[in-house]
Hints:
Radius of gyration: 19 Å
CATH class: Alpha Beta
Number of domains: 1
Strand content: 5-15%
Number of helices: 10
Order of helices and strands: HHEHHEHHEHHEHEH
Strand order of the largest sheet: 2-1-3-4-5
Distance between the termini: 65 Å
CATH topology: Rossmann fold
Structural class: alpha/beta
CATH superfamily: SGNH hydrolase
Largest sheet: 5 strands, parallel
Shape: globular
Amino acid sequence: MFRRLLLAVFSLGWLVPLLAAPPADPLRFEKEIAAFDRRDGANPPPDRPIVFVGSSSIRLWPDLPVSFPNLPVLNRGFGGSHLSDVLFHLDRTVLRYNPSRVVLYAGDNDIADGKTAETVAADFETFVSRVREKAGPIPIDFLAIKPSPKRLALLHDQKRANRLVADVAHRHPDVSVIDVFSPLLDSRGSPDTNFFAADRLHLSPLGYAAWKKVVGEHLTNARPTAVAKPPR
């Protein structure tokens, strides 16, 4: 009897991933968001900046303004965040600045924590709608979810999420997906370890140099940003 029960448990092992943990509390980032508030008081942000927002690949971008010296960029990344966390804190990390453009990197942690590609795409659709509602028809750029050696097993899901997000982008004017995925691959189509830090997840200086080139070319070649209405 016990053996049959044990076999039944193992035969249902495929159900375990479906028993997802409850969503993480977005208020876990309150200290980081409050730090942005203090930073704004001590060092006012540029007028109508290009806001870079998202998870640690944005937060850890070394001295972002130096990477784009001729652009009014503002880094509002907070590490470990999901796209849903960015949505929750959208007013305080993006909309309050009356941005001229928004560059988003999110979805990496979402997929790693068991969210589907469809969820990432749906959250991005919501992100676009909320930014457009409050900030007007400003350009929005989604940095494609990067491949990484640590999350190699999730490569298929990451690619699917990028495709679905691209489908969302194609339905909206001035919404783009910037391909920061392909430059990080080696000749065999696997993540090139030279572009990653020792943790095999975050970018190395070479990785950020590759991103700087691709993102910089996109921002430089893009048409002038639309006139945005102030946040309500």
